[in-house]
C-alpha cells in the first residue's frame, strides 16, 4: 500500500479533506488549512475562469477570421467593379479616362457624344455619296416608265426630300456639333439671340440701364400669334450652302432620315436587281448602325438629358459601390485591430491564469507531500491539460 500513489481529484479535494478533517486538523493543521483555501480556487480557475477566457478568445479568433474574409472580399469586389466600370467606358469609347477614377464623367460623356454625332453624320454622308446617286437614277428611271411624269422631272426629290438634301450636300463640310460650340461656362452661345446683362460685370450694367431709359420696351400681344400651331416635323433644316445641314443627333432629322432609308431598302428589295440589292444591303447596314451602334446611342443622347443622366448615373453607381466596398474594408480593418488588441490582452491574461494555476497546483502538492512524506501524491483531473 505504501508504494501506491495517492490520487486526489482537484474537484473532490475539498470533500476529500473534509472527510479526513478529524485527523488532518489535529496532525497537519497548517497544511490542512492551506489546502482548504487552495481547493476551491483550483476548481474555480479550471472549471470557470480559464474556459470562459478561452471561449472569449475563440469568439475573437472567429471575428478576426471574419474580418479577414470581409477585407479580402472587399478588395476583390473593388477590383471587379473597377473592371466592369472600365469595360463600360471602353464600350462607349471613353477608354482614355477609364483608368482615372476622379475624372468628370459628365464632361467626358459630352465630349464623346460630340464625337459620336460627327461619326454618325459622317457615316450617313459617306453612304449618300456612295449609293444614293445610283439609287436616284434607278428610282427616277423606274417612275418615268411607270408613272409617266406624274411626279415631275425628279420624283426622287419629291419622295425623298431628306435624302435629296443629303445628296445635294454630300460634298459639303460637316456641321460643327453644338456640343463643341459652348462657352467656357458650359452654356451655348447663340449670336442671333440678344444677350442679357445680369449685372455681373460692372461696366455693362450702366449701359443696360441707359438703354432701358432711352428705349423703353413695348410688348404687343397678338391673339393670332398666340394660337397654337402644329410643329412641322418633316420640315427640312435651313441650309447655308457650305455645311452639311442634316444632323442625325436631332430626333426630328433622324426620324425622317430613317423612314426614307427604310423606304429605299424596301424599294431595292422589291426591284431585286444586283445593284439595288447591294444598295439595300448597305442601306440596311447604315440603318442598323444608326439604330444599334454605340455611336448611334451616344448621338441620341445629345437631345436626351435623361439618357445622358442615366449613363452618368450608371458610371457613378460603380464609383459609389467601390467607395462602399472600400469603407467596408476600412471599418473591418479597424475592427480587426481592436480584436487583435483584445486577443493579445486575453492571451496575456490566460498565460497569467495558467501560471497561477501551476503555482496553486505546486502549493497543493507541496502541502500534500508534507502530510504524506513517504507516498507519491498525484492531483488528477482535466486541470493537467492546461499544464502540459
Give an overview in words.
This protein has a domain of 128 residues. 68% of the residues lie in helices and 2% in strands. α4 packs antiparallel against α10. The protein is rod-shaped and about 145 Å long. The chain starts with 5 loop residues before the first strand and ends in an 8-residue tail after the last strand. About 8% of the residues have low confidence.
Sequence stretches where pLDDT stays below 50 over 5 or more residues: 177-194, 202-213
The portion of residues assigned to helices is 55-70%
Q: Report the end-to-end length measured between terminal Cα atoms.
A: 28 Å
SSE series: EHHHHHHHHHHHHE
> What share of the residues does DSSP label as strand, in percent?
under 5%
Instruction: Sum up the overall morphology in one term.
Output: rod-shaped
Q: What about the largest sheet?
A: 2 strands, parallel
Structural classification: mainly alpha
Amino acid at each position: 500500500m505504501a508504494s501506491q500513489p495517492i490520487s486526489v481529484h482537484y474537484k473532490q479535494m475539498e470533500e476529500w479533506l473534509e472527510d479526513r478533517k478529524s485527523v488532518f486538523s489535529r496532525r497537519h493543521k497548517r497544511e490542512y488549512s492551506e489546502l482548504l483555501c487552495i481547493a476551491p480556487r483550483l476548481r474555480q480557475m479550471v472549471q470557470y475562469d480559464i474556459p470562459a477566457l478561452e471561449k472569449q478568445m475563440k469568439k475573437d479568433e472567429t471575428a478576426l477570421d471574419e474580418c479577414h474574409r470581409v477585407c479580402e472580399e472587399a478588395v476583390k469586389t473593388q477590383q471587379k467593379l473597377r473592371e466592369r466600370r472600365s469595360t463600360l467606358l471602353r464600350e462607349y469609347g471613353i477608354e482614355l479616362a477609364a483608368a482615372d477614377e476622379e475624372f468628370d464623367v459628365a464632361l467626358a460623356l459630352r465630349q464623346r457624344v460630340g464625337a459620336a454625332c460627327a461619326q454618325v453624320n459622317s457615316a450617313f454622308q459617306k453612304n449618300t455619296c456612295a449609293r444614293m446617286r445610283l439609287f436616284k437614277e434607278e428610282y427616277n428611271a423606274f417612275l418615268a416608265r411607270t408613272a409617266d411624269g406624274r411626279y415631275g422631272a425628279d420624283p426622287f426629290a419629291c419622295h425623298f426630300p431628306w435624302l435629296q438634301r443629303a445628296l445635294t450636300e454630300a460634298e459639303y463640310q460637316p456641321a460643327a456639333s453644338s456640343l463643341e460650340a459652348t462657352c467656357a461656362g458650359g452654356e451655348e452661345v447663340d449670336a442671333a439671340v440678344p444677350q442679357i446683362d445680369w449685372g455681373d460685370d460692372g461696366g455693362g450694367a450702366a449701359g443696360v440701364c441707359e438703354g432701358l431709359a432711352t428705349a423703353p420696351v413695348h410688348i404687343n400681344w397678338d391673339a393670332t400669334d398666340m394660337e397654337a400651331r402644329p410643329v412641322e416635323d418633316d420640315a427640312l433644316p435651313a441650309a447655308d450652302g457650305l455645311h452639311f445641314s442634316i444632323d442625325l443627333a436631332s430626333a426630328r432629322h433622324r426620324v425622317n432620315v430613317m423612314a426614307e432609308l427604310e423606304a429605299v431598302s424596301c424599294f431595292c428589295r422589291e426591284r431585286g436587281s444586283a445593284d439595288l440589292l447591294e444598295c439595300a444591303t448597305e442601306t440596311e447596314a447604315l440603318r442598323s448602325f444608326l439604330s444599334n451602334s454605340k455611336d448611334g446611342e451616344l448621338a441620341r443622347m445629345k437631345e436626351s438629358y435623361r439618357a445622358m443622366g442615366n449613363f452618368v448615373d450608371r458610371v457613378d453607381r460603380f464609383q459609389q459601390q467601390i467607395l462602399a466596398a472600400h469603407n467596408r474594408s476600412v471599418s473591418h480593418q479597424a475592427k480587426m485591430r481592436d480584436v487583435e488588441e483584445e486577443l493579445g490582452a486575453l492571451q496575456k491574461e490566460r498565460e497569467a491564469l495558467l501560471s497561477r494555476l501551476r503555482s496553486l497546483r505546486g502549493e497543493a502538492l507541496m502541502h500534500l507531500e508534507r502530510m504524506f512524506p513517504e507516498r507519491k501524491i498525484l492531483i488528477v483531473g482535466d486541470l493537467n491539460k492546461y499544464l502540459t
